[in-house]
Amino acid sequence: MKRCVVWTVIILFLFFIILNFVSWEYVTMDNLKSTLFRKTIQVNNTEKNDKYSGPQRISHPVNSVWVIESGGRLGSQMGKYATLYALAKISGHQPYILPKMHDMLSQLFRIKVPVLPLEVANRMKWKRYLLKNWMLPEYRNISDDHVRFSGTPWSWTFYHHIRDEILQEFTFHDYLKEEANEYLAQVRGDRKNVTFIGVHVRRGDYVTVMPRDRKGVVADKGYIDKAMAYYRNKYSNPLFVVASNGMTWCKENINASFGDVHFAGDGKESSPAHDFAILAHCNHTIMTIGSFGFWSSYMTGGETIYLTNFTMPGSPMMTFFKYDAIYLPEWIGIPADLSPLLAEKGENNTGII
Q1: Is 0.85 topped by the overall pTM?
Q2: Are 142 and 66 in contact (CB under 8 A)?
Q3: Among the listed residues 268, 271, 296, the one whose alpha carbon sits nearest the alpha carbon of residue 282
């Protein structure tokens, strides 16, 4: 009998120890029912080769839940994450991300915002806000506890005031850092004092969508030549690393005769992590259009050259896009050649900037 009591005590003690060390990545509905409940939440912390090294733990009252609709490709998801993070911080509320966003971003970054499961999100009563692409003053005055944002925000005006925190959220996993640095070291070879210029050329569906739906153009050969000439004139030993979802076009149109151009990746949009990490580990950037290029430039720092004025007057794109809200003031814009669109209208490009 005594032995049975002893074993019962031991089992209960072990069970108590286990309960105190277990934490969950997802918040549950029971957690959300009480505004006084404090819960330790496990956050993704994947190390090299995706080996899990243990949870980071944060404790906070679960009395507010702010989320943003997930959707879109990598750059779009990053913009939504950064916007949610910044708006929640301004108002002192707790951000959560939905599983789809976590699944995409956690493959690249050590993101810390916890995940809200869909079964919980679908049972909550939300105050919904449709965000514009850029920051508005009224977004600073949102005080609701359960907020669900939608829209496609990725303007720096939401989060640039906490740039260091945003970049910390987008810390690459070690294996991606190592792969990117190994690739750049291979590209550099025996050269000394190399300056790496990441070049992102967005093509794909934009080749059709821009002229047909948005009265705009994508970057052409002339733009790439001008941007590369800028860096070639400024640095004695530049090396251009090109990533694109239209690599065939790049190899046919980018001047590689100087021996300073390297084409990275296979141009497949289904696996952007490798290309993105390489671009972000360069010193400076040439981007064309799109959020993927924006975020690789933003994370790289250094100088950025971007394509500007790539839409015709009256473009429907201007209802959700502002050049000065997308591109940082210190970035260098090179105007696009709109002559192909003007030719379709029987005009010339006189007076077009």
Answers
A1: no
A2: no
A3: 296
